[in-house]
Design a protein that fits this description.
Length: 114
């Protein structure tokens, strides 16, 4: 895990990483509530309730877990290199935050049976 705070596998067995720089300089500085949700961030990537294709960035997918804090969802946005459908794709966590809803026009890639 060289220079990575996290190195995980998503449900499609793609490697997803989080750098300490991204965690400190973006995620926790822009979304301070995330400091207490580090473990939830991991489980959102490894065992999401919903995965959508990002509206603005073709190489990104959004992983969601429901009921993280009351009625809120935890959203983790992952940018994939080498084509997101490739088994050799690597995902880089670009941001994570709490949100009240999934954006209405995000196309669903996968959904659990919750």
């Amino acid at each position: 895990m060289a220079n990575y705070l996290l190195e995980l596998n998503d449900p499609w067995d793609r490697v997803v990483v989080l750098s300490s720089d991204q965690w400190l300089r973006h995620i926790t500085s822009e979304h301070p509530e995330m400091e207490a949700l580090f473990q939830s961030l991991s489980s959102t990537v490894t065992d999401p309730h919903l995965v959508t294709f990002d509206l603005l960035h073709r190489a990104r997918e959004n992983f969601y877990r429901f009921n993280v804090r009351g009625r809120l969802l935890l959203k983790v946005c992952v940018h994939f290199t080498a084509g997101r459908d490739s088994p050799s794709a690597t995902g880089i966590i670009v941001t994570a935050c709490l949100t009240g809803r999934v954006k209405p026009k995000e196309r669903v890639k996968w959904s659990s049976s919750i």
